[in-house]
Amino acid sequence: MLDKFTTYIRDEKLFADTDKLVVAVSGGADSMVLLKLFQQLPNTFCVAHCNFKLRGAESDGEEVFIRDYCAEQGIELFVQQFDTREYAQLEGISIEMAARDLRYAWFEELRLQLQYDYLATAHHRDDLIETMLINLSRGTGIRGLSGIQAKNGAVVRPLLFASREEILAFAAQNELPYKHDSSNDELVYQRNIIRHQLIPLFETLNPSFRKNAAKTAAILKDTAVLYQQKLGEIAAGIKEEEPGLTRFNIEKLKALHPQQSLMFELFHPFGFKAEQIPEIIAALEAGAGKSFFSKTHRLVKDRDALLLTTLKPDDAQRFYIDSNCRAIADPLQMTFEQMAKSSAFRFSTNPLVADFDLSKLQFPLLLKKWEQGEYFRPLGMQNLKKLSDFFIDQKLSIPEKEALWILYSGKKVVWVVGHRIDDRFKITNDTQEVLRISMVSESWKHE
After folding, report:
1. 74 labelled ligand-binding
2. What integer pLDDT is reported at residue 313 of this predicted model?
3. What distance in Å separates the CA atoms of residue 377 and residue 385, rounded to the nearest whole number?
4. Which CDD domains match (predicted)?
5. C-alpha torsion sign, points 38, 40, 44, 48
6. What mean pLDDT comes out for the span 186-193?
7. Is there a binding annotation on residue 31?
8. Contact 221, 125 (CB under 8 A)
């Protein structure tokens, strides 16, 4: 087993001899075998154990078992207890999902705290097959059908080459102690139904089912690599990265074939679901403005592109500026300079600098996001114009409009920041004092 273990680590490039690892150990046969094998490697490692408090004395007994074993072997140990049922109830998720979320969040926190390189888990070949079938039942693509990945970011799974049968045999040969988790026998969990009922049924059809399924997963894993390489080439010709957003060319999206599958692969990394893709495809032929949301991103139909931006909390904040204010840093970096209008005064031609007749301003000034239905009188015009119409004239994209800040005096627009001041507050021959407002940089345009 040790030779296969080290060969698999090397072939899959999981980690180097000098890397430091957190090893997740539950106390079951799988994780105890993983721990035993790690004891024979040159790597620095520690053990992390989770007590989910789900099985009363049994859970606590596993914790005591791990503590005793690590103390006897001189292994550094970290233990964390969770109220898993309470977390599942608060989040509205299953006990299985709650335990998974809790343990991986803590493992990563511990790894970063220790400044270790990787987290090693004891997933093996049978786990991979079970995951394939779970993903198949839910609906998945090539990546899902390839099961568990040997390396995913900082998580490595160096036992994926071994079957459960091989692991149990190694534990017996080495008289390795371990604890049996009784929840693994309960058919209330989806994975247990697959493990104890579905896979044995497949084996009645073909005794080599597990071995063949693992081979299929390996083939699909390689296929997924080739698929992602091709997808990367396609994406490079369709999207353009700009500060704060990504543009996907609509005409090129329309030309994709097979369109639905490729668009799913393009937008799935940003959290969009398969069921949203037909609606996004339909929006390619619609007018501008249609929006789609994932938990982390927003996709907006513009004139000739789909615009992808990262979601931020709705900014309904208002920022007030007193007459004696000389600078602000939030939400924009701005300076305020009051000066007499002398014969030497010259208007600034910089769009990030605005000059106003100080006597026409009502303090405090207000800085906030624009709202639909608002009007102003653009410099040089005699009539009011809707802000939304002004934005159309300026050919601003939807994300650009949403990034804008508006400066108000009373209830009147003073300045569409970075674009146009209101004619009612301009400097005239009668102006005696000037308020000059300057933007520090253009970075605000991409926030």
Report:
1. no
2. 54
3. 6
4. TilS_N
5. positive
6. 80
7. yes
8. no
Q: What whole-number distance in Å separates Cα of residue 300 and Cα of residue 97? A: 32
Residue 365, pLDDT score: 93
* CA pair distance 334, 354, nearest whole angstrom: 11
Q: Give the other-Cβ count within 10 Å of 86's Cβ.
A: 11
Torsion of CA 140, 146, 148, 150, to 10 degrees: -150
Say which DSSP state 198 is in: I
Same fold for the domain at 2-221 and the one at 237-310? no
- Superfamily of domain covering 2-221: HUPs (3.40.50.620)
Cα–Cα distance for residue pair 236/252, rounded to 1 Å? 11
CATH class of segment(s) 237-310: alpha beta
In angstroms, the first-to-last Cα distance of the chain is 53
Radius of gyration of the chain (CA): 31
Residue 436's identity, in one-letter code, is: R
Contact 315, 332 (CB under 8 A): no
CA distance 335 to 312: 26
* Domain chopping of the chain, boundaries: 2-221, 237-310, 319-446
Beta pairing, strands 118-120 & 406-409: unpaired
Q: Is 28 assigned to a binding site?
A: yes
Cα–Cα distance list, 276 to 97, 117, 261, 263, 273 (Å): 24, 37, 12, 10, 5
What is the total residue count of the chain?
447
Residue 243, burial from CB neighbour count under 10 angstroms (0-12, 13-18, 19+): exposed
Write b or e for each residue in 422-433: b if 16 or more Cβ atoms lie within 10 A of its Cβ, otherwise e: bebbbbeeebee
- Residue 447 reports pLDDT greater than 60: no
Q: Token pair for residue 176?
A: 């390795």
29 is in an annotated binding site: yes
pLDDT of 325 over the 80 cut: yes
Q: Is 26 annotated as a binding residue?
A: yes
pLDDT band of 62, cuts 50, 70, 90: very high
Tokens of residue 348, six digits: 């600034």
**Mean pLDDT (the chain, rounded):** 90
Residue 249 pLDDT exceeds 90: yes
DSSP-assigned beta bridge partners for residue 240:
247
**Residue 437 to residue 446: CA distance in whole angstroms:** 20
**SS3 call for 25:** coil
- More confident: 315 or 204: 204
Q: Is 27 annotated as a binding residue?
A: yes
- Identify the weakest region by mean pLDDT among 19-23, 148-152, 311-315, 344-348: 311-315
Looking at per-residue pLDDT, the higher value among 55 and 182 belongs to 55
Residue 396 main-chain phi, psi, to 5 deg: -80, 135
Instruction: Give bridge partners of residue 50 from the DSSP assignment.
Output: 80
